[in-house]
Design the sequence.
């Protein structure tokens, strides 16, 4: 989710209503955006580069690549315009991605207006309740991505302690949670504390710039190597391959989390 004060100059190209809620698509300056009943941008796609990650927070959600080169599967709760799933499908052929989206209209619009491809052996979009899906599929994913906002913000059943516990339980022993939160949300600290409880304090924050999206990463276990030299080396290679600002991510991780001169620190990690 990305908040925008006004889209007076955006051209509306689609609107659908159901159950007193709308799904809207607008275009401005070559960028197409998805809205759910408000001016808030849920997802954006540059028409000249439909498989790029237009919004900074979506690029930030790719920070999981800094911590593992062995990811083979990703589970995403919430589709929106499908920016991250289609990026992974296009650019990371070694990863299978499954997306659970509760709103069938969003699935249709993601495919008709945002170039989300049809299902194949590497991409599956499931119409269903993400909360129930997590509870029914423990220990099933290496990376779990949560980017599930509606017109009122994060759905109430997707920010409870029980929900974040189910997120941890849905991950494999070396798994990672990657969740997009709104930094100015009055409940941000509450959500962060719940995530920390579910992941035994093994949590990092990655602010992604204005106006306030913060990507939070939770780890089932401490990554093998959190030294700055290693992270910067990996970031440089990733940046060259994927044209995403991974080196900036490393510096933001350093600025916003516990660390020493040599490394990032997580609960259970032994500084050296």
Sequence:
């Amino acid at each position: 989710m990305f908040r925008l004060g006004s889209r007076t100059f955006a051209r509306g190209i689609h609107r659908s209503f159901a159950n007193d809620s709308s799904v809207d698509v607008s275009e401005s300056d070559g960028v197409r955006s998805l809205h759910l009943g408000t001016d808030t941008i849920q997802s954006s796609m540059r028409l000249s580069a439909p498989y790029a990650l237009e919004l900074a927070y979506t690029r930030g959600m790719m920070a999981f690549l800094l911590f593992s080169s062995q990811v083979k599967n990703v589970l995403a709760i919430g589709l929106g315009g499908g920016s991250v799933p289609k990026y992974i499908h296009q650019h990371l052929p070694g990863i299978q991605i499954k997306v659970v989206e509760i709103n069938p209209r969003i699935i249709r619009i993601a495919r008709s207006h945002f170039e989300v491809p049809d299902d194949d052996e590497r991409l599956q979009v499931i119409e269903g309740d993400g909360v129930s899906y997590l509870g029914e599929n423990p220990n099933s994913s290496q990376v779990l991505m949560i980017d599930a906002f509606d017109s009122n913000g994060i759905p109430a059943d997707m920010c409870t302690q029980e929900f974040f516990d189910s997120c941890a339980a849905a991950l494999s022993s070396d798994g990672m949670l990657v969740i997009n939160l709104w930094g100015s949300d009055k409940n941000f600290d509450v959500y962060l504390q719940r995530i920390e409880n579910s992941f035994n304090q093994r949590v990092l924050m990655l602010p992604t710039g204005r106006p306030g999206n913060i990507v939070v990463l939770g780890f089932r276990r401490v990554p093998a190597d959190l030294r700055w030299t290693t992270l910067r080396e990996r970031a440089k290679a990733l940046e060259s391959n994927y044209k995403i600002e991974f080196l900036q991510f490393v510096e933001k991780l350093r600025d916003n989390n516990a660390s020493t001169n040599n490394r990032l620190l997580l609960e259970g990690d032994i500084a050296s």
